[in-house]
Write a structure and sequence with these properties.
Length: 134
């Protein structure tokens, strides 16, 4: 994205939106060069953090205060969220947190994986913020 333009054309409706204001306009070229690298670094960090949550489920080892993370996921899906097919959904969550996070960290299929990863994070946030938790 060229920050020197006054307007950016979006691909959705051919509308123009104002260019983002830069914190330090004199560093325009630095921002333009660093943007792809910083996006890759952010994607890598998010993938590794998610991978550390999925690996204990895949290997069946303890994680933090959870003796069995897969059983904890099944309990969360079945009893807290009230969804059917809890073991199968927990297995899909484990796959998303391991294989999906690994692919995201490497930049493979990053856009198709974005929606399921966002849903997983949203589900975790909603369960954390529910009334009466702990």
């Amino acid at each position: 994205m060229d920050h020197r333009k006054n307007e950016i054309t979006t691909g959705i409706h051919n509308a123009t939106v104002p260019a983002p204001r830069l914190l330090i306009p004199a560093l325009d070229t630095v921002y333009a060069r660093a943007e792809p690298v910083l996006y890759a670094l952010l994607r890598f960090a998010f993938g590794i953090i998610l991978f550390t949550h999925g690996l204990p489920k895949a290997l069946g080892i303890s994680h933090g205060s959870m003796a069995d993370p897969m059983a904890g996921s099944i309990n969360l899906i079945q009893n807290v969220m009230g969804l059917p097919f809890a073991p199968q959904l927990a297995f899909l969550v484990m796959l998303l947190e391991t294989v999906g996070a690994f692919m995201l960290a490497l930049g493979l299929w990053a856009r198709p994986l974005l929606w399921p990863l966002w849903c997983k994070c949203w589900q975790s946030a909603m369960c954390w913020a529910r009334p009466g938790r702990g």
